[in-house]
Amino acid sequence: MPERHGSTEPHRQLSLWWDQLDPEPVRPSLSGDLEVDVAIVGGGFTGLWTARELLVRDPNLRVAVLEAEVCGFGASGRNGGWASALFSKSDASLAATYGHDAAMAMRRAMIDAVAEVGRAAEAEGIDCDLAHGGTISLARGPVQLERAAAEVATARAFGLGDADLTLLDRPSALSRCRATEVLGATYTPHCSVLHPAKLTRGLVHAVERRGGQVYEATPVTAIIAGEGARRPQVHTRQGQVTARAVVRATEAWSAKVDRRARSVVPIYSLMVATEPLSDATWNDLGLQH
What's the whole-model pTM score? Predict the structure, then answer.
């Protein structure tokens, strides 16, 4: 494991999640040229999960993660705090564009991903405050109730059963969330809430325990594709990394690498956090689970 230095203090105002973490020294930057099997650019969920999975499958791989700031600096450390199988397009819309089999393969992959977060956290001993409670979407008017019923009917047509999505009547919906004027709801179990910064930090530790190298404060300036006998290369101001394969896990920062035109456009949402709620308030809301 590399020797650490510095402090995380400059990053503690990124989000509520970061503010709740105990300070941890920043990992050292890359210092000189390096040769590995796989170089991963980006230390968020995509990069860290890729590194862990590679090392689980082949512990002998030489894997290096290069992060411009600190792992979890981007969206992985400042998001809504849930792992969800919900998607911004319906199954019917996906099937119309890509075919039924592809739509269902994606749906099942997203469902399994929620469960995999829990499995990996348990396997690595990561305490990320995970609670597997599912998602409820309330219908508070006749039109919303019709849409909820149509959503469930579509799910049935695609082979998804009650275990994936179910329509709740008014009493069942109120038993899960005591909102006003509720007529019914849909419920899916495929959603967990968690502390994303704790999960990110736990993944970093897991990668290092499994033999991966993690370099922070190491901005990548260019990724050079391999050609012929020449292997791919990752260029930084601190050194050059040569690898058999390079994984781009830069997400919203993709446009900054190689000064390329945007292929990924970052989108943001605004979250509001209250002071911690009492057990009595949770009971009144009916959202204990």
Answer: 0.89
Q: What are phi and psi of 179, to 5 degrees?
A: -90, 175
Phi, psi of 191 (to 5 degrees): -160, 140
Our measurement of the distance from residue 63's CA atom to the centroid of its chain's CA atoms, rounded to an integer in Å, reads: 20
Residues 220-271: pLDDT tens digits?
999 999 888 889 999 999 999 999 999 999 988 888 787 666 677 777 778 8
Q: What is the pLDDT of residues 146-185, one digit of tens each?
A: 999 999 999 999 989 999 999 999 999 999 999 999 999 9
Q: In what order do the strands lie in the sheet with 63-66?
A: 213-215, 63-66, 34-41, 240-248, 233-236, 220-224
**What pairs with residue 224 in β-bridges?**
233
Tokens of 270: 């605004």
Distance of CA 245 to the CA centre of its chain: 22
Of 98, 106, 43, which is closest to residue 75 (Cα–Cα)? 43
CA distance 62 to 51: 10
- Give the dihedral sign, CA 129/133/134/137: negative
Between the CA of residue 41 and those of 29, 58, 200, what are the distances in Å? 13, 19, 15
Structure tokens at 105: 């393969």
Rounded to whole angstroms, how far apart are CA atoms 108 and 87? 12
Write out pLDDT tens, residues 185-206.
Answer: 999 999 999 999 999 999 999 9
